[in-house]
Amino acid sequence: MGSFPRSRAPSSSAGPPANSSSSYRSALLRLVSFSRFGSKPGLKRINKLLELLGNPQKDFRCILVAGTNGKGSTTAMLARILEGAGSRTGSYFSPSVFSFRERIQVDGRWISKKDFAARAQEVFSLLPSMRPDQPTFFEVMTAMALLHFAREKADCAVLEAGLGGRHDATNAVEPELSIITSVGLEHADVLGRTTRKIAREKAGIIRPGRPVVCAVKDKPALGVIKKISKRLHSPFYLVGEKPARRLRLRGKFQSINAACALKAAELIGAKPIAARAALSSFSMPARWQKISSKPSVIIDCCHNPPAAKAIQEDLKRDFAPLPARGRRGNARPPRILLFSAMKDKDYGGMLRLLLPHFDSAVLCRPPYARAAKLTDLKNAASRAILKSGRRARKNAVAAQNPDSALALSKSMAGKRGRVLVCGSMYLLQWLFGEREFRLTQ
């Protein structure tokens, strides 16, 4: 594969003016209204929408990244490498933590509120011609991203797939290269109840004759991906974590993500030394990110059992029991888990992996329709505590909402204690994201 072209100057913003935060909020409110259409399989709607927009995805080269975990980090890492190589690079993420604008970036900069509103309006104006089969929220967001990259004269774009791969809206592009980071049991009701079936869905992003970079460890899933790659005559590259020795991000799993990005960059034509240099200072929000001290508060986007397994080394290091202080020797700094989850996730499996590292859990429910009920979380936590043995002196308490849960967690931890906030990216959104997230509920 040849290298991407050098960057070009971006064009001026197109579409109706959107000069205020109110325009941004209005666009968000209308955009989120499309959530009522849920997730609908197939590429028919996104293909039609992109055709009405003039097929902006054909104005730049694309790389698609799919996987149960790691695809967001891999997307960001590869985008950083390409930016460092001089290519004007778009990147698309799903979901986001701190802002809806975080989903659409060019050269690492979030789309502005003005451009977000303008791109949204351009897409909205075409929707009457798509009745009665209206696009979903994710399809509209994907169209906005691709339109923005074209307007900004991007040379290339790295796109994180949403759900699965084969029927995902991002699969409407024609990728130069595909990456599959991992395969685990998630969204089984949609993707299938075995890793083989889920792998088949994710392998839907592979194109005939185009390279595939893979870090999947599950043997049945890996076998499926290899078989599909062979059938499509797509060069297959299996990677591990060894190449990423200077990575700033913690965790072996991040080294594996970096290995995917480095291999993809090599196939594209990036120089290995420059690629490694681009990753040496790389960091990403909500990936084992410490946001405050006294108490220490760490946030992480762990939201399923495979992700909980992946952060075990970080938990052993940063949440190991500290020595007691005081004459009585019973004042160990508390370790608090602030946890919430969506009802379609295996939160019981997560809690069984996480709770052994904590003294107490604070459970809460963000005001999302998908969020698990507090009673269900409490029962799952109780079962996880019982499974850890009679000698496990742990407790789980419920808080009315995420804000009170965070305040309670900090109070329980005290100045010397430690708090981990995880379980759902939607929990992180509510606590640490822009207020516009709350306007859309």
CATH topology of the largest domain: UDP-N-acetylmuramoyl-L-alanine:D-glutamate ligase
Integer average pLDDT: 88
Strand order of the largest sheet: 4-3-2-5-1-6-7-8
Helix content: 25-40%
CATH superfamily of the largest domain: Mur-like, catalytic domain
- Strand content is 5-15%
| Domains (count) | 2
Textual characterization of the structure:
The protein has 441 residues and is α/β, with parallel strands linked by helices. It has two domains: 21-280, 3-Layer(aba) Sandwich (UDP-N-acetylmuramoyl-L-alanine:D-glutamate ligase), CATH 3.40.1190.10; 289-439, Mur ligase, C-terminal domain (Protein-Tyrosine Phosphatase, Chain A), CATH 3.90.190. The protein contains 17 helices and 14 strands. The protein has helices spanning 21-33, 44-52, 71-84, 113-124, 137-151, 188-191, 195-202, 219-231, 252-268, 272-280, 305-310, 312-318, 347-354, 374-387, 402-413, 425-432, 436-439, and strands at residues 61-66, 89-92, 104-106, 109-110, 156-160, 177-180, 212-214, 236-238, 289-292, 296-299, 335-339, 360-363, 395-398, 418-422. The chain has an eight-stranded mixed β-sheet with strand order 4-3-2-5-1-6-7-8, sandwiched between helices. Residues 7-19 have low confidence and may be disordered.
What's a quick, concise take on this entry?
Helices cover 39% and strands 13% of the residues.
Task: Supply database-style keywords.
14 strands, alpha/beta, 17 helices, Protein-Tyrosine Phosphatase, Chain A, 441 residues, globular, eight-stranded mixed sheet, UDP-N-acetylmuramoyl-L-alanine:D-glutamate ligase
